[in-house]
Amino acid sequence: LLLTMIGRLRSAQGRRWAWLLVAVVVDLLHSVLVEKRREAAVARHHWQRSRNACEPLYGRIGIFIYVDQLERYEGTIACWKCYADSHGYEQFVVKPFAEDQRCQRRCGHIVSVFFRRHCVAAVYLDRVDWLLFVDADSFPVNFHRCVEEFVDPDYQIIHYERFFSGEVAAGSYLVRNTDQSRDYLLDWAEQSFVLNQIHIHNMDNGVLQLHVLRAVGVAHDRLAVCWDKFRNASSLVGYFAFVGCTKKSLREHRPTAATTAGHSRRSVKVLAPLGGWLRDVWLTGGRWTDRDFVLHDLKRQNAFLKRFVSEPSCPSSVDTSGWLWSLGPTKLGYKVSVETASRLFSKAERRSARYHPDVFFPDSSSSSTVVSHYG
């Protein structure tokens, strides 16, 4: 069309203007192409740097997601796949009651999905050296963080304490491929019957608090005290009194020859609040920093996460500094400074301490990244 217009121009001045227009258009197209190539090069650089950042110091790493509604969490699952591929990790996405025959044979009798998932994870454990179990409503917000950062080869199972509730979190953990770890998960999964005896149990979370105490060899009399609180809890106030009991028992536990009989002193490790790999996204209103790794409780699978499903490749999504998503009609999630996030955490801590005084002890620091060792 442009050449046709030039041909119709009879005057020398018209031809000069036409060629000038062509030169401007070519220059603009060249600038656009150069910028596109630059962006592609930057994306490849971020992807390559991310891929090379995590050395396989502890063997094969697997990421395990047990999800009942694949279409509901397709965005977070695709995000995890992108992350796993960029670091050479394996990813296992398993749907309840649709597992393979090995899982069906071992876990088919467990009806509760909350307990069955730990049994299935135990079956998958022999496929890798370390398995990261995560909820489907979580996703890695910083691709440069590595699972290996949280692996401790001196332990078999690594948990973390949830920031606002004081519970040892049931929704995510790191587990090593050993017989001891497998037995730990299977024993936990087999305790779904306890729910029939408890009024306020928070599914597998409540049972886990006592399971950890047993694993590290806490004395039976302390276990009995906490069990009574669990069994007699008739409200959330009573439940968090039980959680406070288990938390205090772990903090005060000092292994002895008597209390560790039949237990490994270094079987279970519990990371302090905010010292683990995952935290709830709502604690900071959806904001995050370079220090974060995995954000949890993102139920809204919006366009931000669904782009991981629609994009044919992952490298362009590795640089997360410009990520932005909607958490509601008036809330947006985006990257902030560590100082800003710290202020938001302090506010959340004060609020949680008012609601759950039994799990916020005077000498505890919920904003600490200090690792707590139990057992």
Properties at a glance:
Spore Coat Polysaccharide Biosynthesis Protein SpsA, Chain A; 375 residues; elongated; 2 domains; alpha/beta; 11 strands; 3-stranded mixed β-sheet
Summarize the structure.
The protein is of the alpha/beta class.
If strands are numbered along the chain, what order do they take across the biggest sheet? Answer: 2-1-3-6-5-7
Assign the CATH architecture of the largest domain. Answer: Alpha-Beta Complex
The helix content, as a percent range, equals: 40-55%
Judged by helices, strands and strand pairing, the structural class is alpha/beta
Broad shape: elongated
Q: Largest sheet, described in full?
A: 6 strands, mixed
- What distance lies between the first and last C-alpha atoms, to the nearest angstrom? 78 Å
Taken in chain order, the helices and strands follow as: HHEHEHHEEEEHHHHEEEHEEH
Q: If you average the pLDDT, what whole number results?
A: 78
The proportion of residues in beta strands is 5-15%
Helix segment tally: 11
| Low-confidence runs of at least 5 consecutive residues | 38-52, 257-265, 363-375
> What's the name of the CATH homologous superfamily of the largest domain?
Spore Coat Polysaccharide Biosynthesis Protein SpsA, Chain A
Q: Give the CATH level 1 class of the largest domain.
A: Alpha Beta
Organism: Trichinella britovi
Signal peptide: 1-34
Pfam families: DUF273 (PF03314)
InterPro entries: DUF273 (IPR004988), Nucleotide-diphossugar_trans (IPR029044)
What does this structure look like?
This protein has 375 residues and is an alpha/beta fold. The protein has two domains: 13-52; 53-317 and 324-373, Spore Coat Polysaccharide Biosynthesis Protein SpsA, Chain A (Alpha-Beta Complex), CATH 3.90.550.10. Helix content is 43%, strand content 12%. It has eleven helices and eleven strands. The protein has helices spanning 2-8, 12-53, 74-87, 101-107, 113-124, 179-189, 204-216, 220-232, 236-252, 303-310, 338-355, and strands at 61-66, 90-94, 130-134, 138-140, 157-160, 173-176, 268-271, 278-280, 294-296, 325-328, 331-333. It has a six-stranded mixed sheet with strand order 2-1-3-6-5-7, sandwiched between helices. Strands 4-9-8 form a three-stranded mixed sheet. A hairpin with a 2-residue loop joins strand 10 (325-328) and strand 11 (331-333). Helix 7 (204-216) runs antiparallel to helix 8 (220-232) and helix 8 runs antiparallel to helix 9. The protein is elongated and about 105 Å long. This is Nucleotide-diphospho-sugar transferase domain-containing protein. Pfam families: DUF273 (PF03314). Residues 1-34 form the signal peptide.
